[in-house]
Amino acid sequence: MENALVFVYGTLRKHQRNHYLLKDSKQISEQAWTYGELFDTGNGYPMMKKSNSEKVFGELYEVNQKQLALLDELEGYKVGRNDNLYERDIQTIYTDNGESSAYLYLSERACATAIASGDWKIYQLLKQKPEKVLYFAYGSCMDVERFHKANVGHFFETVIGAATLENYSMKYLYAASDGGRGDIIEDSGITEGILYETPFEAVNYLFKREGYLIGMYRATFVDVQINDKVYKDVLTFHVYDKKEELAPPEHYAIEILRGSRNRVSDAYYKKLVKQLRELNVSFELTDWE
């Protein structure tokens, strides 16, 4: 039989405890979403219900029939059985590269705690409140002057180093009133940025700065690399509602170049400059070139 696409949103996600069941599968997208509502079962895993307006965030994988059978077993699903823990259904899944129909596991059993973010990993972060949080800053977020102006520079004093995010490109896909803003999009590209170790208190500042609660940028987790070391499930932000790439204003371009100069690789810095020029952004580089 043919392979199938499966959308996962809980303990099957990357670095979660049941992800081993997907270790030989093909990841299609780690920034996928679908319409639904997420709940905490209170048993260490979430449950998803149907919704026409709320969103659930997760990952999309291609699996073979043997792997699908293992997922069915984990989710307590059997074809034709009346008392399944979860039902396997098909829904439209949305990614940076388009839409796909995929299997996912739903339940209509009663659950008391709704997960407002629609993201199991973000929910865990906010619930557990770890003492330290790894944060990947890219684009204008590399500019430390903005931290100091907001009186939060002390949150970002521990710099682990310049990090590389593979299979993502930085583009200007958020449309503000005066032009584009930086975003990461899943593709075959590479994005460089700065990896920080921050106190948990910095998360509230970052959520506010990125407009998380009003739907501008969404908090998510990625793996980044410094030399040969991989840092897993690092907090970063990307755009909810991506638009066609739009030239950013000069002041924003300057923030990006000021924040990245002598911090990311020379090749990546030059790529940022070239990208801005190709978008016909007018700016002076005498202070940085």
UniProtKB/TrEMBL annotation:
Entry annotated with the keyword 4Fe-4S: no
Residues of the active site: 75
Lineage of origin: Bacteria, Bacillati, Bacillota, Bacilli, Bacillales
Name of this chain's protein: Gamma-glutamylcyclotransferase family protein
One of the Pfam families matching this protein, by short name: GGACT
GO cellular component, one term: cytosol
Protein keywords: Acyltransferase, Transferase
Sequence similarity: Belongs to the gamma-glutamylcyclotransferase family.
Record SUPFAM superfamilies: Gamma-glutamyl cyclotransferase-like
Segments forming domain Gamma-glutamylcyclotransferase AIG2-like: 6-121
UniProt entry tagged with the keyword Zinc-finger: no
A molecular-function term among this protein's GO annotations: acyltransferase activity
Domain of life from the UniProt record: Bacteria
